[in-house]
Fold this sequence. Notes:
Helices cover 21% and strands 25% of the residues. With 369 residues, it is α+β, with helices and mostly antiparallel strands. The strands form 4 sheets. It has a 5-stranded antiparallel beta sheet, with no helix packed on it.
Amino acid sequence: xxxxxxxxxxxxxxxxxxxxxxxxxxxxxxxxxxxxxxxxxxxxxxxxxxxxxxxxxxxxxxxxxxxxxxxxxxxxxxxxxxxxxxxxxxxxxxxxxxxxxxxxxxxxxxxxxxxxxxxxxxxxxxxxxxxxxxxxxxxxxxxxxxxxxxxxxxxxxxxxxxxxxxxxxxxxxxxxxxxxxxxxxxxxxxxxxxxxxxxxxxxxxxxxxxxxxxxxxxxxxxxxxxxxxxxxxxxxxxxxxxxxxxxxxxxxxxxxxxxxxxxxxxxxxxxxxxxxxxxxxxxxxxxxxxxxxxxxxxxxxxxxxxxxxxxxxxxxxxxxxxxxxxxxxxxxxxxxxxxxxxxxxxxxxxxxxxxxxxxxxxxxxxxxx
Length: 369
């Protein structure tokens, strides 16, 4: 096990009592002063069920399903139960400890698999004021400053990062400058399929900075790494409505198709791993109201912008932080990230962004204490 994996296992040893927080959305005037202020301390437990059926497979079929693989002070990934008419097993990437279920189905079998993972989550808050009492291992920090297929760190990425952080002296000032640069320059583009691809070099070269979470938060991570700040994408799933009434920051537990959401973390020497989600700021600006809000001081945007560097709401689980994943037994290309169910038949890889055609469902049930 690498130290990079161990860094995601630290914390959360003493969970305390488990409480359920009411999460029903409440009506608000679009222009009302919103409240968004996650507080640490209340753990929630969810059972998350993914069910996949391939109605008309061509030849043998393989399916890979992400399971929660992060254990930290803000998430505990517990057990996963598997039911399938194929040969299914738990597998790992062998590097970060990213876990997933890998299943094989013989030709002539109509594949069906259902897995249920239990996870405990809580809010993150005020991480820019907390002091880091457990410094990260040097090899982990190096690992999270590496380039990946979609996160090159030279050329236009490096140039952009240097411009964005011009005048910033400390790592915290640089992280804040990059967060602000992404919020100011990138934007939510609803027409992008799924969560986007995270091809930051193409985004910067074309000047098309519209995208979704896997694009915008990848920009944050890539620009951070390009100036030497360890950073990582955290790929996950929204599970429940926001306790603060934001519809765009909510998940419908009865149907989580399309609820996949990528977040980010940056490592700061004084504070440790710090939560970041400029993509959700952009999502609120573009979609929370009928009007496309263009400033972060708007009363709907301001509290989200304030708290999504240094915190996030715990109505979300993290699957993993993996990039460039080669799935065991896959005939397809490496995955830039593992956030969706993946399936392949003899005809190739199915479209994970079409859950109705793919025939998969994801639901969540909150387990009351």
